[in-house]
Amino acid sequence: MGVTEFAQDLAHGVETRVSALSGAFLDPVIRLGVTGLARAGKTVFITSLVSNLLDRGRMPQLRAAADGRIEAAWLQPQPDDTIPRFDYEGHRAALTGASPHWPESTRAVSELRLSLRLRPAGLFGLTGPRKVHIDIIDYPGEWLLDLSLMDLSFQQWSEGVLARVALRDEAAGYRASLQGLVESGWDEPVARRLADGWRAVLVALRKAGLSDVTPGRFLMPGELEGSPALTFAPLPRPEAPARGGLWREMERRFEAYKARVVRPFFRDHFARIDRQVVLVDALEAIHAGPAALEDMRRAMAGVLQAFRPGRGGLLAELIGGKRVDRILFAATRADHLHHSQHARLSAILAAMLREARDRADFAGAQTAAMAIASLRATTEVDLSRGGETIPAVQGVLQATGRTAAMYAGDLPTDPTRLLSPAREGAAGWLDGDYAVMRLAPAPLDLAPGQGLPHIRLDRAAEFLLGDRL
Q1: Tens digit of pLDDT for each residue in 341-376?
Q2: What secondary structure does DSSP assign to 254-297, as a single string?
Q3: Are 412 and 344 in contact (CB under 8 A)?
């Protein structure tokens, strides 16, 4: 490299850094992480949030929109060139086309930048309009669960997951494969067979409505498929694990998974997170039964115990002390219930996450729990049964395309009526029968200036972004 080229590169580097520094002062950035468990609706949440920030006719509870302080909103290139862009246009087209359908679920990290031009607040408005950038980071919920592994040894993890599946039919084949397993020298085909068997257990558990399915990358391995870091499985510990034997190598690979897969992911992608959304399909868990509801509560508590927003904690260690100061727990698919039951759904979610919320509040982070629908797919109707009027909803069945009315069941006003039998390991609900049908997006006819129809997305946006706008 010549002196001239070197000088040009040096000048470009200085210019880039000065520009970045100036941008940091002039244009504030809000980094919003969107996480949740499988099928919780992360993709639809982001698509609808962006749609309703671009066209704010349905956002009366977002004060900056209601007051007219948001003068303009537009999408622009994201700042990180190494992360795929969230396909907002494609996902919105799927939801609003002639034959609307749900977009593909999240399978990798993606990012999107939405910029807002804000009219200055205050009595005199002496300063001119300012910009605020919202960087939205989406990633698979399965990977979120892996954060709970960071404080566990291979033995602790093995004992925990084997105890949880001891009576599950989905794990019968895997339990049988452990019978007569003798501690011996390392054998790669045996390790692969065990890893494939555990992956099959996780797939079956997820289909059954359970949430605690670790390691999460087993379900979405991506470029790591077939690697040693993803070729391990839970084992009962032998009395004297042999050096170079099956147990020791599985233990080593478990530690490698944490060090080389889990830790870098959270370190690299959470380094600047300001606000966090945790989406939960609590209705599906209630429908699946007490075991699924307790499994979801335990999974979320385990994740957030490691998360520890605010001061200290494992995540702070990973990302250098960065603080997540607001967390929203959102129960999705509220449109599957009549509005009279939305408060009950919110109360169940708040109670289910009470321990985790208390830790977050104690650490200084503000938290909220609410029932939302990122895209409203139903209308409310009254059903007549035995001379009684039942408040229900009506939508298009995903399987058949026919319109049907649905009554999901009467959620209790006291959340302990669900959470207590779930904690106690009840086989089913004693005083309630809950059902949730899979509905397709309804055909839309959007008026100019209106985003996608929703339930309480404006309140969610106000909690997550309002103070910064």
Answers
A1: 999 999 999 998 886 667 656 566 788 889 999 999
A2: HHHHIIIIIHHHHHHHSTT--EEEEEE-HHHHHHH-HHHHHHHH
A3: yes
Backbone conformation region of residue 336, classed left if phi is above 0, alpha if psi is from -120 to 50, else beta = alpha
Containing H/E element for 72? strand 70-76
Q: How confident is the model at residue 250 (pLDDT cuts 50, 70, 90)?
A: very high
pLDDT value of residue 5 = 39
Pairing of strands 366-371, 326-331: parallel
- Dihedral angle computed from the Cα positions of residues 90, 95, 99 and 103, in that order, rounded to the nearest 10 degrees: 60
Spatial CB neighbours of 169, under 8 Å, sequence gap ≥ 6: none
Of 262-276, 317-331, 379-393, which range is least confident? Answer: 317-331
**Average pLDDT value for the chain:** 84
- Strand-pairing partners, residue 373, are 455
The CB density around residue 424, as the number of other CB atoms within 10 Å, is 9
Q: Determine the straight-line distance between the first and last CA of the chain, rounded to whole angstroms.
A: 47
Picking from 331, 333, 320, the residue whose alpha carbon sits closest to that of residue 398 is: 333
Q: How many CA atoms within 13 Å lie on the side-chain side of 60?
A: 2
Q: Give the residue carrying structure tokens 């558990």.
A: 205
**C-alpha dihedral, 149 to 155 to 160 to 165, nearest 10°:** 110
Nearest of 306, 162, 142 to residue 224 by alpha carbon: 142
Amino acid (one-letter) located at 217: R
pLDDT of residue 23: 45
Q: How far apart are CA 60 and CA 138, in angstroms?
A: 25
DSSP string, 125-194: --S--EEEEEEEEE--HHHHHGGGGTT--HHHHHHHHHHHTTT-GGGHHHHHHHTTPPP-B--HHHHHHH
How long, in residues, is the chain? 469
The tens digit of pLDDT for each residue in 62-71 reads 999 999 999 9
Most confidently predicted of 14-18, 45-49, 406-410 = 45-49
Tokens representing residue 5 in the block: 């080229």
**How many alpha carbons lie under 13 Å from residue 366 in its C-beta half-sphere?**
9
Question: Mind listing the pLDDT tens digit for each residue in 139-171?
Answer: 877 777 888 788 899 999 999 999 989 989 999
pLDDT given at position 344: 94
